[in-house]
Amino acid sequence: MNRQRAMEWIANGEVGISSKTMWSALMGVPYDQADFPYDADDFRRCWLFAQTAELLPTDFETICHVYPWWRNIYEIWHDMDVALAKGDGHRIYELISEPKRYARLMYQAHGMVKVGEGSWMSEDYAKRIGKEYELPE
Questions:
Q1: CA 92 to CA 52: how far, in whole Å?
Q2: Fewer CB in 10 Å around end: N or C, the chain?
Q3: How many Cα atoms occupy the beta-carbon half-sphere of 120 within 13 Å?
Q4: Closest by alpha carbon to 46, among 32, 63, 29?
């Protein structure tokens, strides 16, 4: 990683929550809003950060170590990169929102479980009110 460019990016770059999450992991700065990209625009900001800071595979491993649920994103990074180059935002959204992957992301990152079509709530709350749900694979 080019640390100087990463520092310049946080001050002047196109920053979003998911790209700031990447930055926080690499800089060792706790971030209480840590999250993952939800759509093509979120991913584009992450991609811009990765390009600007000249991230290496070892940098992505650091991100996945700090935020283990980020591995779900790193596993599809190349495919999203290809889709971004083609201007195919819909494909990026499809990759992120693939049901099993999205369920893992929501559970691992936020403790949320799917309780109905398009409905999510914290696992603790679902237990408390007796709502049925399945844990992600």
A1: 20
A2: C
A3: 15
A4: 63
